[in-house]
Amino acid sequence: MTHLGMIGIGLMGHGIATNLQKHGHALTLLDHPGNQPLEALITGGAQTVATPMAVAQHSDIIIVCVTGSPQVEAVLTGEAGVLNGLKPGSIVIDCSTAVPTSTVQLAQQVSAAGGRFLDAAMTRTPKEAAAGKLNLLVGGDADLLALCHPILACFAENIVHAGPVGAGHQMKLLHNYVSLGSVALLSEAA
């Protein structure tokens, strides 16, 4: 069985973790003060660890769901970061809203450490995360996406391959730009 690790059990990550667990996946979660309550996940069999490195040491696939590039960089490259515990062949999936150039650099570092990388930017809200109906804009190798598709489908109903590493995050930023631009136009018209 593929063991999954998650870093970032906030409003979106909690729904993702819950759906992964509902589909029978073993979970290792980073214990962090920014997490939503973990009791139900722990009761369901999830274990918690103190560092991103420990998440990587226990996981075949690590899903990162934090705020943005500075946080992704910290959990991957910090002293007790994912890269220091990454097992050969492990996969890092970054679901954050991140800067594409940072994403490409981090993917290179993951590769140099023996891992593989997808950026899988999310759209929709915590309600859809809880329902397992997120949209994912994925950047990375198409074969790796195909391998990870069953995992992603546990929490997303629409999974779009946007292109190479960084393309998922590029599409998310464009999505936000258009969405927020429309909101600004509507507010001006009102």
Task: Show the helix and strand layout.
Layout: E1 3-7, H1 11-22, E2 26-30, H2 39-43, E3 47-49, H3 52-57, E4 61-64, H4 69-77, E5 91-94, H5 100-112, E6 116-123, H6 126-131, E7 134-139, H7 142-152, E8 156-163, H8 167-189
Parallel strand pairs: 1-2, 1-4, 2-3, 4-5, 5-6, 7-8
Antiparallel strand pairs: 6-7
Helix pairs in contact: 4-5
- How much of the polypeptide forms β-strand, as a percent range? 15-25%
Number of domains: 1
Helix content estimate: 40-55%
Record field, number of beta strands: 8
- Name the CATH architecture: 3-Layer(aba) Sandwich
Helix segment count? 8
- Describe the biggest sheet? 8 strands, mixed
Overall 3D shape: globular
Contiguous uncertain segments of 5+ residues:
none
Full CATH superfamily name: NAD(P)-binding Rossmann-like Domain
By secondary-structure content and strand pairing, the structural class works out as: alpha/beta
What is the arithmetic mean of pLDDT? 96
The CATH class assignment is Alpha Beta
Order of helices and strands: EHEHEHEHEHEHEHEH
What is the distance, rounded to the nearest whole angstrom, between the alpha carbons of the first and last residues?
54 Å
CATH level 3 topology? Rossmann fold
Radius of gyration: 16 Å
